[in-house]
Design a protein that fits this description.
eight-stranded antiparallel beta sheet, alpha+beta, two-stranded antiparallel ribbon, 14 strands, 3 helices, 241 residues, Glucose Permease (Domain IIA)
């Protein structure tokens, strides 16, 4: 018997139906491999999506076991290292200078002329006026002294005016800076200081004259007034006793 006629040779198998069977098996292997790879990638994506949401990493926190449970979490979850920033208290501003409470020294007055008070201050009771020979108020004091006697500033201040008044003659006024002004009337026309000059208490500002026509009937004297905020006050309250 001829062997070539009783069986098929390998070449004839590959050229026949066997070729298609091998081709089918190769395609099946490739398909299975592709399916396995796709399944693995999908599982990996799901695993990653479980730990990251929206691009932000999500920390997995294991909840503590309920009371009475035998489950013990041996993993110690350390609290985040949060440093409590304590607001620094503002440093107390150092005083540039020690705050001192000083009482203002009382103003010191001196007598503007040497002599006796011939006519006193009176605005609530009438006094007899020798020149006009009637009874009237008197807003200052008249200090009797010789004509030409020195007149000094009763308190330090600025000479704010020197005028020739129709009734009181040559009148010099000093502003003491706290609402108080002193007025010197019946002076000689020539004064010792000009307007605007600053003078200390006791500084000579003029001399006694006889220029006050409303008091010409009296002997030589200085007519002296004090005015607080424009209102006359009794000089005897401020002058030394």
């Amino acid at each position: 018997m001829n062997s070539s006629s009783s069986g098929k040779s390998p070449e004839s198998f590959l050229t026949g139906k066997g070729f298609y069977i091998v081709l089918f098996l190769c395609a099946a292997v490739i398909g299975v491999s592709a399916w396995v790879m796709a399944t693995g990638n999908e599982a990996m994506k799901k695993s990653e999506s479980g730990s990251a949401v929206g691009g932000h990493r999500v920390e997995t926190v294991i909840a503590p076991a309920a009371e009475g449970s035998d489950w013990i979490d041996e993993t110690e979850i350390a609290p985040p290292d949060v440093r409590a920033e304590t607001m620094a208290e503002p440093e107390a501003q150092e005083e540039s200078a020690e705050e001192t409470v000083s009482q203002k020294a009382p103003a010191v007055y001196v007598w503007p002329a040497l002599g006796q008070v011939e006519r006193g201050y009176s605005v609530s009771a009438l006094k007899y006026d020798e020149t006009l020979q009637d009874w009237r108020t008197h807003s200052g004091i008249d200090i009797a002294c010789e004509e030409g006697a020195s007149v000094v500033a009763a308190r330090g201040g600025q000479v704010v005016s020197i005028v020739n008044d129709g009734l009181y003659g040559t009148v010099l006024t000093i502003d003491h800076g706290d609402g108080m002004r002193s007025v010197y009337a019946n002076l000689a026309p020539e004064t010792e200081v000009p307007e605007g000059a600053w003078v200390d208490a006791g500084v000579r500002v003029g001399t006694v004259g006889r220029s006050a026509l409303c008091e010409i009937g009296q002997d030589a004297h200085l007519h002296f007034e004090l005015r607080q905020s424009g209102a006359s006050v009794d000089p005897a309250v401020y002058l030394p006793a």
